[in-house]
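Example 3.
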Amino acid sequence: MTTGKETNVRIKCYIVIICAVLFGAWCLLTYKMGVRAVILPSPTDMVRAFRQLAPSLPVSIAASLKITLIGFALGAAVGLLLGLIMGYSKIFLQVIGPFMEVTRPIPVFALIPLFMLWFGIGILPQVLLIALGVSSILGVQTYEAIRNMPVVYVQAAFNLGASKMKVFKTVVIPCIIPHLIGAVRVAAATSWGLDVCAEFMGVQTGLGHIMIIQQNYLNTPQVLAIVLIYSVLAITLDQVIRIIEKGATTWTDRSSLSFEGLTTEGKMSRKEKQAEKKALMELKMQERK
Amino acid sequence: MIEFKNVGFGYSSKKGIAKIFENLDFTIKDNEFFCVIGPSGCGKTTLLRNVAGFEHPTEGVIMNDGRPVEGIDYRRAMVFQDDAVFPWLTVYKNVEYGLKVRGVSDDIRQEKVKHYINLVGLTGCENALPKELSGGMRKRVDLARVLANEPEVLLMDEPFGALDAMTKEVLQEKLVQIWNESKRTIFFITHDIEEALFLGDRVGLLHRLSDGGELEFFNVPFDRPRDIYLKQQPEFQAMRRRLAEKFHQSGKGGAES
């Protein structure tokens, strides 16, 4: 048995070792084995790329961040609202539900050309695209979370004198929030992807825009640099969501995985399993007789 | 006073209506502690849910104080078998919930919440979250939350069914004490004969519909206030045995059919 502290140190050691090995492999491939910068840039190329990009970065990051965050916020609000209304009103669900079922499987990315025709090449089509993608994820998840919540809470609330509206505000919403965190994180990640795609095709500013230009020049170091910046942005947003999650779910039991710390005793060995099979066969044979 | 007038209930299924109980015709008096026992599947919980207004009788009518029961009402408050305490609210806010959603003013609310938390013996736990409490304590929160609304009728659906024997006895005694101090009608469902006899003024044994679906009444003669030692008295045990025999006859009949 190891104590928690020892395990933590061990885990950190593993992580450091893996990082070192990856970095070593990168250096080996680029400096020693002569892989070309177009395929895989070396660390030196990357530093240079970041230096070259630096002047244009603040504007580009701000542009991409603006589009993604507005789109994500708008989509999350619409999705949550739609999900809640679907849970609240059966008529709304039965009327709007089929339309949503039909349109939901359409890949949002496929709509990019249409959106540009309809809404021009400004910020609007991109924001709408991201919002659409996010809302279709969150709408369904919200509705499913409402359907899966324990009936007894709703019944208890009604029986304590709450109106339907109050039950939604005070019981349904707090109850489903922990179940939505996963969906919100997926939606946030998707919104970055949608942002990149939208920028590939339209706008004149933003990270995705620089990326597509540099790709035309086969400037892999700068393309990779932008990929890294995107990852940092996406991870930051994800971390923000996780911090909010911690605040919103203190009342649940799910601080750790339920598998943790559980071990079984007396696992059946292969021999024992075979012996059992054999015994079963014999029993069946006897029954036949 | 709750009057049952030829009440029957059935679920509509593909094969037609699956009847749960029918022709129930009886009255629960004001401030009576009435317990119903019966084998599983006899419809006792469904009967209670009909009184609460979660479901509606398919035949006959249930009258509360002369008015037919048409929907859910906080004055007919249900204590559920499942853990119904809201896990996202603290003990205080759980108890306050009914008063708050009904728009009771702040100062009255504060006073009542304090009183009922004290009554169930949870003073000091106001700011705890339900996950930090044991099952028995959560049941106390549930009870305080329902009582804070000061309902006329308490409907209890095997509320102590999931608790261990010791906690159960403590809560039974607490319930009897609370009922003694402020009388109200209680309709209590249980499958535990001892519990029914210890708590009730009158016990109803509901048979399965396949065994005739009759509701048999037994008056409980023991004096109040009752304490937990009543359960060891020979008269108590004799009555328990009499009921157990009836109960098991009913249960057997169901199993055979």
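Chain A touches chain B through 21 residues (CB under 8 Å). Chain A is about 80% helix and 0% strand.
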